[in-house]
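explain this:
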Amino acid sequence: MEQQTERTASPIDTISPDADALRLLVESTTDYAIFLLDPQGYVASWNAGAQRIKGYAAHEIVGRHFSTFYTADAIHRKWPEHELKEARRLGRFEDEGWRVRQDGTRFFANVIITALRDADGTLRGFAKVTRDISERKANEQRIERLTQELEGRVVELAAINRELEQKSAENESFVYSVSHDLRSPLVNLQGFSQELTLGSKALAEVLARPGVPEEVRQQATTIIEGELAESIQYIHDAVRHLSRIIDGLLRLSRVGRVEYQSEDVDVNLVVSEILAAMHATVLASGAEVKVGPLPQIQGDRNAIGQIFANIIGNALKSFDGARDGVVEIFATGDTPPVFAIKDNGIGIPLEYQARIFQVFQHEQTSHLRGEGMGLAIVRRIVERHSGRIWFESSPGVGTTLFFTLGAVGSRPASSPPHGVA
């Protein structure tokens, strides 16, 4: 839309003492629309960049008002007049907004209008430089949209995390309650099995008395020392196994309930104390334990000790006697450091590798199985230290457990792809 009638404007050729050089520079520029306006805002010159960006040939636009390039809304708000007014007052005006090409399509432009005055301050006109920044604008809008989507996802994930934390707390309370409730009947079962053992001994003493027919004595003794003794032993073994499971469940439930205390922890000292406590186990395994320099970190000392004790204990149980066992304990110099406990044992069977951090999943072969709690507890402690845990293992070659430990209570970093916890 045009604000004023079309007229022929005279080129402004007295702006620069080297007008020819300036004209050649302006006319050869294609990335920017560079043109002159007279004091009323009519187009007085036109360069190749202006034709490329706005679509008008010079003879189609020279003499027309520059408001031709503005949207109807901008013209209604008298924005073109405002731009010239500000440029006249301040000497320069810069704006970004939508502009209109000759074919009616719109583009997003960065516009700079500079007032041109001669030596005595008389306004000679304006220089207008327009750059098409539609692509930059589109990228900004795309980034803004993605940022909003990301913020939405973060909110969703925060809600999911809160829900998971609540469910985890509920599960831990449930496990604690059930484990505690199971303890009482288990104690009774253990007591009754002991009573059966004492009863068997008393019955054997009765059978040994004079007057008991030899045939009866032999038959009863066979039952007592055979089937009855075997059944009692099965009960004893089952009670011990269930007791260990309940103890493990209670330890697992306590991991999420205990308030950790963050302090400076000398990991060298922690590992040294653990190995001293495991001295008999180390000797029984026949393994050589090598400990590299370990850093001082922040965390809960007792919990960090649990991590190393569980993993070292698993490593010492992983040897089959086919070769000399070696356990290596070391850390990298990364921030945070990556701790590693490596063994050359039997390795983790492939069918268990995807589940070794889950409760009741056993990472060793059948003759070495425990209750499947150790690494589940380790994983929970690592998570509460804002860390991550993973492993590399080859059956028949050995296993390396890696883990990091961050500040107690902050969010864990993402885990590597192998053995993600």
Summary: The radius of gyration is 42 Å. DSSP finds eleven helices and eleven strands in the chain. The mean pLDDT is 81. The longest helix spans residues 134-207.
